[in-house]
Structures are given as structure tokens and as C-alpha cells.
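[step 3/7] fold_predict: job queued, chain A
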Amino acid sequence: MKASEVAYKPVGLALGAVSGMIAGAAFKQLWKAVEGEGDAPSATDEDRSWKQILIAAALQGANFAVVKAAVDRSGAVATRRVTGTWPG
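[step 4/7] structure written:
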């Protein structure tokens, strides 16, 4: 295992936690813009329609994937700048 990979492991774990927090906050804002409400429906919310629940789930999944990719990529770029090699 290369030194850059070893160095990136704890960074990657920390970035994963940070990306989850960022994605959660971003999704709350996204849902407010889409639905005009503060809370997205949960799958067991009987007062919400299937359409609302599935749209919320799709937006949340896409939002999480985009934020995670952006944070992971930023971490890899920063690791390359520090170590000179791309983490594998």
C-alpha cells in the first residue's frame, strides 16, 4: 500500500462524515425550495402521498451522491497536492 493511500484513509473517513452532514443540510434547503415545507416526508408518513415520498427519496439520494462525489474528489485533489500522488 502506498503512503498516499495510507494517508488518505483517515481523511477519507472524515470526509465521508462531513459529506453526510453537508448533504443533510443541503437536502433540507432543497426540499424547502421544492415543496415549500420544512420537513421532507419519511417513508412511513401516512399523511403524505406516494408521489411526495418517492420524489423526496429520489432528490435525497441524488443530492447525497452529488455532495459525496464533490467532497471525495476535493479530498483526492488535496491529497495529491500534499503528497504528489493520487490516492488509489
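[step 5/7] annotate
The mean pLDDT is 87.
The helical segments are 3-35, 50-83.
exit 0
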